[in-house]
Design brief:
Helix content is about 55%, strand content about 5%. Pfam families: COesterase (PF00135).
């Protein structure tokens, strides 16, 4: 800590890896002694009773929205591709030459083989050659949904299920909020759209959302919120759903 405190803001900023997302975990050797997946797997193999290993033996519920990657379209890619969030006109060439290479570099660094880049492009580009705008938009959303949320959650769930004693659940939420600023082409639950459902559309929260976006939940959405809360509450009490 004394070394860190002695550095200037410029030194610290220059030392940061600008190729990584700012919300990625940092392996500092103390709080995270190594990669979390490797650390937990090794601990389970050694059968040690440690704080880290306790994670494997608690009941775990993981959840994600089906359009988590929509936030990236708004925050990064619309401007980078010289389009707007509402239109988001993206081509196959954009995905192949810009989106996929930058996504891989920011996630894994520079030392990635061309074969991996080509494989990711094949998976997340429209190889049919139809240039359907809706399909291409969805491919970009799918890519960042998987990078940011889906892949890490599935890996975490697999480790917990295979090596632990607790129950493991993974759910996907897809009910859209239909906010006024949500583009018409984004059909599903964007990043954090589930929050209001999880907290039962509190009056305070609704006042803010209605003022900003004009949103009012439907009867069906309130029913879904109640069911979601009951499911999570039952899991918290029993470890099952």
């Amino acid at each position: 800590m004394s070394c860190l405190r002695g550095k200037s803001l410029t030194d610290i900023s220059n030392a940061l890896d600008k190729k990584s997302f700012t919300f990625a975990p940092s392996v500092d050797g103390t709080f995270l002694r190594s990669d979390p997946e490797v650390m937990i797997t090794d601990l389970a193999k050694d059968d040690n009773s440690t704080k880290e290993l306790e994670f494997l033996n608690v009941d775990l519920m993981l959840g994600l929205n089906n359009m988590e990657g929509g936030a990236h379209v708004a925050l990064l890619w619309a401007e980078r591709l010289n389009t707007t969030y509402n239109e988001f006109n993206v081509s196959r060439a954009d995905i192949r030459n810009i989106v996929v290479p930058i996504a891989i570099k920011r996630t894994f660094g520079s030392n990635i083989s061309q074969a991996i880049t080509q494989t990711v492009n094949f998976q997340y580009n429209d190889v049919t050659g139809t240039d359907d705008p809706q399909r291409l938009r969805q491919r970009v959303v799918d890519l960042f949904t998987d990078i940011d949320v889906a892949a890490p959650l599935v890996r975490t769930g697999n480790v917990h299920e295979l090596l632990g004693q607790g129950s493991t659940y993974l759910y996907q939420f897809s009910e859209p909020l239909n906010l006024t600023q949500t583009p018409v082409w984004l059909s599903g639950a964007n990043r954090a759209d589930d929050v209001h459902f999880l907290f039962g559309f509190s009056e305070r929260g609704l006042q803010f959302v209605n003022h900003v976006t004009g949103f009012t939940p439907t009867v069906e959405q309130r029913v879904l919120s109640t069911r979601l809360i009951k499911m999570i509450s039952k899991f918290a009490r029993t470890g099952y759903v």
